[in-house]
């Protein structure tokens, strides 16, 4: 009886083992199973201060903290930038006042120049015209006086011989005197006009001088404008640098690592924090080449992580790499002299997580994955 019971137990164990073996083999046929599994992230960013260097005065986050986009992470000593900004602002203010003064002076000289130039030019034309008229009138009077002088001398000789009455001589003499006085008056007025002409010509000369002054003032204004533009750009650059002294989070995520501490002096671009973006986790599977059969984009997968044995995650294949992991290894195999040892190569497969407690995930965790093979 005992022998029969022992045999029955052995047969039962063999059947159970066969069932288990069948299921195990069937599972391995239907699923590609591997433990070369790592949790990775699409966005792990080592961030540092942009364009600015100095001593760190504040560190607002520690490793493992949750961060939001734009949230302050660290601060650099910024007093030097503030002093430089104040100095630049003062220079801009002084140059702005200088520019306003130059513009006012230019406008004033321009108005004076326009008025004086027009008045002097038009007055000079009129004066020249009158001078010519007076010269002509004087010439005509001189001709008349020359003729009257001849008549007067002739009549005087006739009067001395008592051939004409004295009245005839006196009329010519009177007419001669009147014309002489008229000529003298015209010559006096002509002299006055020539004096006015000289003043008008002097005003025109002054207008030329003012033109040169105006030209130099415009050059100076242009130079001030150029300095102002350069200072405005410098001010904008300093303001940007002041902004850069506050390091903020570029996206929502988690602090993976803190590289520096308060009081450290760092240079621009040096990493301060490593941030892992929220919801960027995926499963990186190094799948053996002999298990690739039936694995396609969209294939379903089940993931178990060693850190959370009671938790199950689901996902689907998103990327099947076109190169093996060994191809991009830091020290790739040298097969130029021939290689005779067969090594199973692994192909990176990216699995996007579709179900499970993603908040439990940490970059670098290991586990096991089962990928459903497609027909």
Distance between the termini: 50 Å
The rough form would be described as rod-shaped
Strand tally: 14
CATH topology of the largest domain: Elongation Factor Tu (Ef-tu), domain 3
Order of helices and strands: HEEEEEHHEEEEEEEEE
Portion in beta strands: 15-25%
Low-confidence stretches: none
* Main beta sheet: 6 strands, antiparallel, barrel
SS element count, helices = 3
Annotated CATH architecture of the largest domain: Beta Barrel
Tally of domains: 2
User: Strand sequence of the main sheet, in spatial order?
Assistant: 1-10-13-12-11-14
Description:
51% of the residues lie in helices and 23% in strands. The strands form three sheets. The chain has a six-stranded antiparallel barrel with strand order 1-10-13-12-11-14. It is an alpha+beta fold and 375 residues long. It is built from three helices and 14 strands. The two termini are 50 Å apart. The protein has two domains: 31-77 and 254-372, Efflux pump adaptor protein, beta barrel domain (Elongation Factor Tu (Ef-tu), domain 3), CATH 2.40.30.170; 80-242, Helix Hairpins, CATH 1.10.287. A hairpin with a 2-residue loop joins strand 11 (300-305) and strand 12 (308-320).
């Amino acid at each position: 009886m005992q022998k029969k019971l022992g045999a029955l137990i052995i047969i039962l164990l063999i059947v159970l083992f066969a069932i288990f073996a069948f299921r195990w083999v069937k599972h391995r046929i239907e699923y590609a199973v591997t433990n070369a599994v790592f949790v990775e992230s699409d966005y792990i960013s080592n961030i540092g201060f942009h364009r600015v260097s100095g001593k760190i005065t504040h560190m607002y986050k520690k490793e493992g903290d949750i961060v939001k986009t734009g949230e302050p992470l660290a601060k650099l000593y910024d007093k030097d930038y503030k002093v430089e900004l104040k100095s630049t602002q003062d220079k801009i203010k002084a140059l702005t006042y200088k520019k306003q003064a130059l513009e006012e002076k230019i406008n004033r000289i321009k108005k004076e120049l326009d008025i004086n130039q027009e008045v002097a030019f038009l007055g000079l034309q009129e004066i020249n015209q009158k001078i010519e008229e007076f010269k002509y009138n004087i010439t005509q009077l001189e001709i008349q006086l020359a003729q009257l002088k001849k008549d007067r001398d002739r009549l005087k000789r006739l009067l001395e011989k008592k051939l004409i009455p004295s009245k005839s001589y006196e009329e010519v003499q009177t007419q001669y005197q009147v014309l002489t006085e008229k000529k003298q008056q015209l010559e006096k007025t002509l002299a006055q006009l020539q004096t006015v002409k000289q003043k008008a010509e002097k005003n025109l000369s002054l207008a030329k001088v003012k033109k040169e002054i105006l030209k130099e003032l415009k050059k100076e204004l242009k130079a001030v404008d150029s300095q102002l533009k350069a200072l405005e750009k410098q001010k904008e650059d300093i303001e940007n640098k002041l902004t850069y002294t506050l390091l903020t989070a570029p996206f929502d995520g988690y602090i993976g690592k803190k590289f520096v501490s308060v009081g450290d002096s760092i240079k621009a671009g040096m990493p301060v924090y490593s941030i892992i973006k929220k919801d960027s986790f995926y499963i990186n599977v190094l799948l053996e080449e002999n298990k690739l059969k039936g694995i396609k984009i969209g294939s379903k997968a089940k993931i178990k992580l060693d850190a959370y044995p009671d938790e199950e995650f689901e996902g689907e294949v998103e990327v099947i790499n076109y190169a093996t992991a060994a191809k991009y290894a830091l020290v790739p195999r040298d097969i130029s002299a021939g290689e005779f040892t067969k090594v199973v190569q692994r192909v990176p497969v990216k699995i996007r997580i579709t179900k499970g407690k993603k908040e439990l995930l940490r970059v670098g965790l290991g586990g096991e994955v089962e990928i459903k093979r497609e027909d």
